[in-house]
Structures are given as C-alpha cells and as structure tokens.
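## retry 2 of 3
previous attempt timed out at serialization; input unchanged, resubmitting
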Amino acid sequence: MMTKKEVTDLSYKITGCAIRVHQLLGPGLLESVYQKCLEYELIPDGFTVLRQVIVPVVYKGIVFDTELRLDLLVNDCVVVELKAIEYVLPVHEAQLITYMKLLQKPQGLLINFYTDNISKSMKPFVNDHFKQLPD
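## retry succeeded, writing output
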C-alpha cells in the first residue's frame, strides 16, 4: 500500500512528464497524440502505465461491461484523464472523480493540453481512498 506522500510524489512526477510533452508539442493537437507521448515519457522513468483502461460499473452486485475508458492509469494508483479542449467543464471533473471511485484509486489528474501552462491548468483530485492511506 502506498502512502499519501508517495501518491502525491507520483502525481508531481506525472505532471512533470506532462509539462515536458507540452513544452515539446504545444497546444492544438488531438488528445490521443498527447496520450501516446505522455505514456512514452512515463515508461522510461520506470512507471507502469496502462492506456485506455476499461472502467466496469457494478450495479446492485452485477458487473456491467461499459464503454467507459480512462486515458491512463499510472502505477495502478493515479488515474490520468487527458483533454485537449478550450474549456474544462464540471462534467470532465465529474468523469474523473467517478473513474476514481469505480476503480477505487486514491488520486486523479485532469490535464488539459489546450493551454499555455500545464501547471496552472492541471487539476488534481483525491477521494476517501486517499484519506485512508497512511501518511
């Protein structure tokens, strides 16, 4: 089990990789391009990265196969949802929070590459799973 500090450090490292991708590519490309490039940045740094992870929905004890797919899952801990859009809306935040809940992951990052500064536009989220982690 990871600690809160380890999860937070992981999120900072993921953000650093996203900044490198953004510095090299800039805004204006498709989300799928940023996804591939971010994955390419993360793997050599020793991270385990799963792309387009299916998010199952359990409803009244029944597992439903869905079309829900998160962009990246890093070290089986941090859900990374990527956007390349002019405005991040509350529905995009809700999507990430729901993925975190359904997969029982403690941290999520909403990263929008359609910006001039990833650090200012990136939004981290934590939930009850994070609060239960040891310090």
